[in-house]
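Table S7 (text form). Paired inputs.
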Amino acid sequence: MRIERNLISNTIDGLYDLPPRKKVSDKKGKKQRKKQKRAMLKKLHEACIGAFLGPGTIPPSHKIQQMTLILDDMKPSDLGLSEDMPYFTNPIPGLTPMVTMMPVFKCDNFSICIFCLPPSAVIPLHNHPGMTVFSKLLFGSMHVKSYDWLTSMNESSGPGSELDSQVMEITASKGSPRLAKVHFDGVFTAECNTSILYPTTGGNMHCFRALEPCAILDVLGPPYSEADGRDCMYYRSLPLHPSRSGDDGRARGVVYELLEEIKKPDDFFFLGAEYRGPRPM
């Protein structure tokens, strides 16, 4: 999910009637809770520094495990979030629900951000080129569908001759739709485990649809960068014509679909919002 400035295509001041910032209390109990919340984000930030070593790298397995354990333990309150915040309702009834993005931290090697989705809000099918991405659903329920490109007809679970050979000819042309296999198609409900996707596996292309108010904490490494060739691409799924054997896109228990690159949908954009929670440093 792109967090570059040119994808945050609109910030509507006054759209949300945000409450004024609360003055910091001098009471010991509130100070302690604030310190604990900041400690969780600081812990995540420090783990990211050790895990993400720059473009072209994937965090080693022990760092992935460390990151996953930290994210699994994170709660909405650790980031100053609650379901009654205005970001999780549609401020203009009758219009497409808008997704709000809060940037928490960004450097050359990684970025941390929060996505706020009202019910029925959609983040369309997009990719994460060259990235490892950790996603933690903090609260809510959403439908997720993710894909990986089919890179070889000789993959162990690949279609081989079980899919129509015409499909292989279509996908061989540059710029044409490409064959992808479905990695996941189902519902995530908090408090589910952190999901991880990799540059070529784990569902690098995915789309979300909120079934109820959702908050998603994303950690991406390296972050999107158009200048470095990591621009966000959008796709649409095309139906596979049934093969002669009647497989209809299924082979050996795996589902295959054609994905075609498209422009960013006209009715989709992020609203940028200031992150008001604890800071990682």
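Next pair, protein 2 of 2.
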Amino acid sequence: MQSSPEKNNERSVFPFTAIVGQKEMKLALLLNVVDPKIGGVMIMGDRGTGKSTTVRALVDLLPEIEVVENDPFNSDPRDPQLMSHEVRKKVINNQEIPITKTRIAMVDLPLGATEDRVCGTIDLERALTEGIKAFEPGLLAKANRGILYVDEVNLLDDHLVDVLLDAAASGWNTVEREGISVSHPARFILIGSGNPEEGELRPQLLDRFGMHAQVGTVKEPELRVQIVEQRASFEEAPETFQQAWEASQESMRQKVIQARERLKSVEISYDHKIKISQVCSELDVDGLRGDIVTYRAAKALAALGGRNEVTAQDILTVIPLCLRHRLRKDPLEPIDSGLLVKEKFAKVFGSPLES
């Protein structure tokens, strides 16, 4: 298949399947792609561990989506919940809507972004003189039905983090100026990354991310050499390197597409739901987000594995990523929060290898 001129002009992206190690981060990202309702990922780890590279590589695995042509909000031509008000009016009035296909967008949020840049602005002069709700879309509009990536999210202004999380939770962005209000759909996968040495997010904000992945510097000399050699090969001849990994990339793309289709038919038993909630309760996890995210992540993992029923092993794999950032911090507790979750899982479920 011949590449489009648009794709040829794009910046070369390191292939997702070529990334060595960092299984936890890659798994959390893939599960959010399979089920965006998981609620995004917070990736925390050392500098130079491939956080940004992995997130940007994710986009190449995503399928194309149908959008309304020339619509600034990437409106879905069939789902009213993902349509702008203008598109919905046309649908109600049975007007013809031009449809096109596009790659899922990944929007980078710069640290210095203002609220107007993120949310969009209303041209008050035109609104008052012409009676038109003249709206200049922001980054949230561009990110609708895509991925919004915030590098160094722990350095972002708390107010902006609140805005992002509110939009991610509700699926809508509303801009109000001088009594004039404009709303548009803003359903996106929110991915944040940061270095814990530069500060942590407030617990109430951290809790709003569906999953929390920890990454560390690879210690094994052989793996470090492999990473360095791959990076050097990619920088020397990006297209050749990408072609060498294309079969692996295509295999992963198909796996993701099939998992998204299978997700609707995946079931989790009542007994497993009870045990997940028991783990959350005994760990004193506030609220019910931990329960819900664990259900969703376990189902997404089963779908990714080509199964229609969640196993205890699926739950064991995802539950540390879903709960570790929701535990109350105890400075005197020497054990890692992820291990604490696994220990509680083993107590509630019995041996992780059973069932």
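The two ends are 45 Å apart (CA to CA).
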